[in-house]
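ok so for the tutorial part 2 we go from a plain amino acid sequence to predicted structure tokens. step 1 is just haveing the sequence, like this:
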Amino acid sequence: MNDVMAELAKEHPQVSFVKLEAEAVPEVSEKYEISSVPTFVFFKNSQKIDRLDGAHAPELTKKVERHASSGCFPPSADEHLKEDLSLRLKKLTHAAPCMLFMKGTPQEPRCGFSKQMVEILHKHNIQFSSFDIFSDEEVRQGLKTYSNWPTYPQLYVSGELVGGLDIIKELEASEELDTICPKAPKLEERLKVLTNKASVMLFMKGNKQEAKCGFSKQILEILNGTGIEYETFDILEDEEVRQGLKTFSNWPTYPQLYVKGELVGGLDIVKELKENGELLPILRGEN
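step 2 — the prediction. this is what the tokens look like for a chain of 287 residues:
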């Protein structure tokens, strides 16, 4: 699809083509409900006018040609598509109660100062989201002016700059850090919230769209056959939940099915309930 985009860009010079890594800009992915890649979103004057989910070259070509010919993309599309930087930085700094702008990610910091900052925040069980300034040069340069702070990492709470590593170290030493930054919920509290996130919650390997093990695939097929609404959580995406839920539920394997926060069981139990005609009443909360 990158090759298709490149060709379309040559054919339609009046159209601006922009490519984003979905995971590098989670706030954008959330805003436009990007659940799979590739997803193509079409804009006119900064307003979303169309989208295409999936790698469908003919459909993408058709949509680009249709919108380009209808004059949806004026020659100054670059200016229209470019969100005002200060507004964007304001949104980013407010994207979570505690936002860390760093080099790299918490899992893979790409400088010693960022690594130390992450270690301090984790040590104090502080809940934070992060933005990799290497992923966006505009943000990297713009935030220095926006915050009047020339270096990274930078920590924001409620959209306000707290400071860099030295300031955070001072706050830690004076025991003020814990009063300024929001605490991450303890694992047990988090698991209670997750198991009650929907009336019917399935913890599995993969998700509704793509099961990543045979047992998870089978339980999806059974649930889909009931017509009952349910939500899923991919335990492969969160090691803390994956290990913690085994103890929390006293159930060592996955998938695990919960109804109204109560464990029903794994695949074998669900199969038995289906055969006995008890599954549907349980999923409806009648039993």
